[in-house]
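lol so apparently i was supposed to do this last week
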Amino acid sequence: MTQPGRPDLEMSASHSTDAPTAPSSPPPSGSAVMRTYGRAELAFVRGEGCWLITEDGTRYLDCASGIAVNTLGHSHPRLVAALRDQAGKLWHTSNLYRVPGQERVAARLAELTGLDQVYFCNSGAEANESAVKIARRAMHERGEPERMTILCATGSFHGRTLGMLAATDKPANRTGFGPMPDGFEHVAFGNLNALRDQMGPHVAAVMIEPVQGEGGARDAQDDYLRGVRAAADEFGALVIADEVQCGIGRTGTLFAYETSGIRPDIIAVAKGLGGGFPVGAVIATQTVGSAMTPGTHGSTFAGNPLAMAVAEVVLDELGTPGFLADVRRRAGILRDALRAVADRHAGAVVEIRGRGFLCGVRLADHLPAGDAVAAMRDEHLLMVPAGENTVRFLPPLVISEAEIATAVEGFERVLGRMVAAQDG
Ligand SMILES: *Cc1c(COP(=O)(O)O)cnc(C)c1O
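anyway here it is w/ pyridoxal-5'-phosphate bound
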């Protein structure tokens, strides 16, 4: 396919046909966007609640939420109003000055967690990267600069910066990216003996997702988290909860660690906090947070007034009496319905996993999760694959019972077709 008037494209196309192999094939239909994602051939122009709508008006039920981001669904009237209102007043001033919105959101996050200090940033990787810096700096200030190691879990995902590539347990993500930063070790997820064996005077912190997202919707379990807290206390290390995906109401409590009764020293959040606007935050105890003094860390964009305006609304809505209880109730309905599907398709579904609306269905190995998600898309249902051959239901937290039923029916139709195709 050549484009008239674009000799550069014609040339690259003819070159690639000559080449025996095409290590970097030309981008499709002239796209100048770097190809870091395997994208579906689908574009949306509007969103309403749990629905995404294409240019030709086709509606897709969104059980992905932009990967656990659109907490309150699309075009939530209060979010739209808050952003519009702030956009007419002030967008950005940098952190050279006070930002009143930051002070309000920080106070809310501190009150909601019982922690004390908040550092704002723009993404999940940056939140975790900041959490690691804060943990190491706290050890430095405590007079134990040799405590630098961060213990991470197998199956973990913490982001794509160089630091977080070292923290993430996915060696393939590191290929070709040169030397990784030192000071990250991995221990078996959910195994307290393994964790305790690796503990020592070199460990600054244990970094854990209370419910792993990318790893396959794997719940760390409350007993394990209590064991992690106890081991960290015994060996003088900190606990960092990576709540980037499982936090902000996704699992039915504001933070997933809450059900364990532990208090982390540092909590990283992002994804759901802005309801679709990029914003992240690190919440820390006074002891740990006070290691950070002017000049030790920063970001130009972080905590800008637009981000703070929407984060305030998200926290407001989640704090409405009964909101989270209703998330738990509806997530229970989803889980029960999926269990019934699993019972009707024994051999296709291995396990229903995760918690709340971070809900995973682990499929049998002969039914690839990626294929299932693609087939689901053809049914106008959006989901996200994860590790361990799992598909994730990550709907907006406001999904209705009727929409849950629609999603589960679509899922069961696709599952039935995939099983039939295998048998035939
Ligand atoms: C998505 C994710 C991250 C990275 O967040 P980005 O905003 O993509 O940088 C980190 N930790 C967890 C648990 C995540 O799910």
